[in-house]
Amino acid sequence: MASSPSDKPRYFFDHLQELRRMLVQALIAMTLGVGLAFWKSALLFQILEEPFHRAIAHFPQVEAQASSLKTLVPIEAFMINMKLATAAGLVLASPFILWRIWVFVVPALKPTERVAILLVLTMGLFFFIGGICFSYFLVIPLALEFLLRYNLDYQLIPVWTLQGYFDFTLNFSLVFGVLFELPLVLAGLAATGIATPQFLAQKRK
Fold first, then answer.
1. pLDDT tens figures, 107-153
2. What tens digit of pLDDT does each residue of 41-84 get?
3. pTM here?
4. Rounded CA gap, 55 and 146, in Å?
5. CB 161 within 8 A of CB 76
6. Which has the closest alpha carbon to 89: 78, 100, 79, 97?
7. Backbone torsions φ then ψ of 70, nearest 5 degrees
């Protein structure tokens, strides 16, 4: 039986209620994730500083004062701690948040659309995490070694701040995370006919 026009406002408000419930649950999950990450802040700091210590271990001539990160303002370490906790909390809560978003939108999707979206989300998450890991374990240590050697060649003492190092590692990680998404983007453009293999081959030359 077809729904009457009077049912439409009810369905609309039902969707609003479900959206509000999803947002509240996502906020709670995010808060719990940030709280857990803040509780483990010492471990997060060790993970953050690991590439720096691995790189500087190759330069025994570096003075003791340059072998650790520095803070320039009293609140700097606390603010970095909060940023790390927020980022880690988002990562911890993201599976639940993505699941709630999926539950909210899946009734409006066709079966083929559900499979396609699940495939894209899974591959996109895999590629993004792969790019971050590639940056953290390979690119960042190599970049730090190069920059340390560059400073020492000019007889400069590399006194790096915690804030500057955090921005450096964050930017590298995000850039490589996005770069690793390019194959998926190109595959999507080719599948939709926006970018054909002939077009990509022509632009590569």
1. 878 888 888 888 888 888 899 999 999 999 999 999 999 999 998 88
2. 889 989 999 999 888 888 887 766 677 889 999 999 999 999 99
3. 0.80
4. 9
5. yes
6. 97
7. -115, 155
